[in-house]
Write a structure and sequence with these properties.
The protein is 31% helix and 27% strand. The protein has 13 helices and 24 strands. Bound molecules: flavin-adenine dinucleotide (FAD).
Length: 464
């Protein structure tokens, strides 16, 4: 078979690119080795975690309903039912992706894809081997969980994001190694379901890519809520015990602790799915296994593009994978394309309190030589936060003094991952702090806190 475009991998990067290619009239094939379309994000990432998180939130409402004057007799968590709900949501959306392929006349080719060089892609599937001729190829093969040396995932004790999502009960205790987005999200979910959670992070702070004030606030709230957080912690031997697992940890103060738990989650980053892809037959260049691309997602091999988690230096986020797909397909179809500005990518971490951020942190802005002005507004003074009973967190605006340029916005608090949208749009539209101060924010809303934080840059917040 001969195609204008063959895409390998059907995660948010690959399937979105396939839809756009169909819309542009390119004859397109989507190669996927799993039996279902949707990738990490849909099956073992974004969607199932957020479905469980929603249930954890509802569960907390029941546990604390007395504060609202609602008396619930013996609320009971039926965790298998919560897992069933999560699985239904995932299945519905996997069908949705299949529908999109049909609607956009994309051929779904089942099997594992490999580049043979010269525009040929070999697909090995249950029905044997076939070779596709491709004018263009997009590699969208994503990533898998990175393990610590000497550890192998198993469904009983040592988990990755895959095994933890198919547990049928809430563990009594859970050790999490790694406090990036994946680690803290699972910690926040299972803590709310009642597990005793310990988070171990080698670096001096949790969510290390965020602004330092955000890390401090999340750590403060986690500790206050009963999550044990150890930063600067080095994990040594991990051994199976009768009841689960034991980890030997050298703490920041140099002392060694033995921590027991029923289960242990390894969340120390993601490795690229590039092995066995036949890249050695091409000019595609790698950086520690990740694929190097230019601003249009082109690799060093003519006609071969890469998008999403597999790309070197790409923030591993579903919306980035999808937008990189738009750039690659636009380029292939000869349409005007705007390469991605890494400074305008929203980061979202779905903890309690949640995190939403965009642009430079205060430290990055100072390091780049900006004359930094910061405006901060706490959710303590926001009436909607009071109504919700969720006062932790703040909005922090990082601006340049000279023209009021918005350099970054960092939010921790209720629904921060939704609120950040306003800041992303403001930065994309190159609005200044003054523009945002003059933007009317409805009352009572959480996003009023954003308007106040912009005003706080000039010491003009009203409710502070
Ligand atoms: C627990 C967890 C929670 C997350 N939550 C969020 C979130 O809330 N928001 C967010 O933006 N991001 C989140 N992410 C990150 C997000 O899942 C990834 O950034 C996103 O899935 C990357 O998309 P992708 O298209 O690059 O690859 P993937 O989604 O990894 O898809 C790659 C696909 O390629 C297939 N494949 C691989 N090799 C081959 C081959 N040789 N032949 C054929 N098929 C192949 C795989 O089977 C897979 O289906 C989360 C990740 C994890 C692990």
């Amino acid at each position: 078979m001969s195609y204008d475009l063959v895409i390998i991998g059907s995660g948010p990067g690959g399937y979105s690119a396939a839809v756009r290619a169909g819309q542009y009239g390119l004859k397109t094939a989507l190669v996927e080795r799993d039996s279902k379309l949707g990738g990490t994000c849909l099956h073992v990432g974004c969607v199932p975690t957020k479905a469980l998180l929603h249930t954890a939130e509802i569960w907390q409402h029941f546990l604390h309903s007395e504060e609202e004057g609602i008396h619930c007799e013996n609320p009971r968590l039926d965790y298998p039912k919560a897992v069933e709900r999560k699985d239904k949501i995932v299945a519905k959306h996997a069908k949705g992706v299949e529908f999109l392929m049909k609607k956009n006349k994309v051929d779904w080719i089942k099997g594992s894809g490999k580049l043979l060089g010269g525009g040929k892609v070999e697909v090995r599937g249950d029905k044997g081997i076939q070779t596709l001729d491709a004018k263009n190829i997009i590699i969208a093969t994503g990533s898998g969980a990175r393990m610590l040396p000497g550890l192998e995932p198993d469904p009983e004790r040592i988990l990755t994001n895959v095994e933890i999502l198919s547990m049928t009960s809430v563990p009594r205790s859970l050790i999490i190694i790694g406090a990036g987005a994946v680690g803290v999200e699972f910690g926040s979910i299972f803590h709310r379901f009642g597990a005793k959670v310990t988070i171990l992070e080698m670096l001096p702070r949790i969510v290390p890519v965020e602004d330092e004030d955000i890390s401090k606030e999340l750590e403060r709230v986690f500790r206050k809520s009963g999550i044990r957080v150890e930063t600067g912690a080095k994990v040594g031997e991990v051994a199976a015990t009768e009841g689960g697992v034991k980890a030997s940890v050298t703490l920041a103060n140099g002392k060694t602790d033995q921590i027991d738990a029923e289960k242990l989650l390894v969340a120390v980053g993601r490795k690229p799915n590039t092995e066995g892809m036949g890249l050695e037959q091409t000019r595609v260049e790698l950086d520690r296994g990740f694929i190097k691309v230019n601003a249009f997602q082109q690799t060093a091999e003519p006609g071969v593009y890469a998008i999403g988690d597999v790309v070197a230096g790409t923030p591993q986020l579903a919306h980035v994978a999808a937008m990189e797909g738009m750039v690659a397909v636009g380029n292939i179809a000869g349409k005007p394309v705007k390469p991605i500005d890494k400074n305008r990518i929203p980061g979202a971490t779905y903890t309690e309190p949640g995190i939403g951020s965009v642009g430079l942190t205060e430290a990055q802005a100072r390091a780049q030589g900006h004359r930094v002005k910061v405006g901060k507004f706490s959710f303590l003074a926001n009436s909607k936060a009071s109504i919700l009973g969720r006062h932790d967190g703040f909005v922090k605006v990082v601006a340049d003094e000279k023209y009021g340029e918005i350099l970054g916005v960092h939010i921790i608090g209720p629904h921060a991952y939704e609120l950040i949208g306003e800041a992303v749009a403001a930065m994309e539209a190159e609005a200044t702090v003054e523009t945002m101060m003059a933007t009317i924010h409805a009352h009572p809303t959480l996003y009023e806190a954003i308007g106040e934080a912009f005003s706080a840059v000039y010491g003009l917040a009203i409710n502070a």
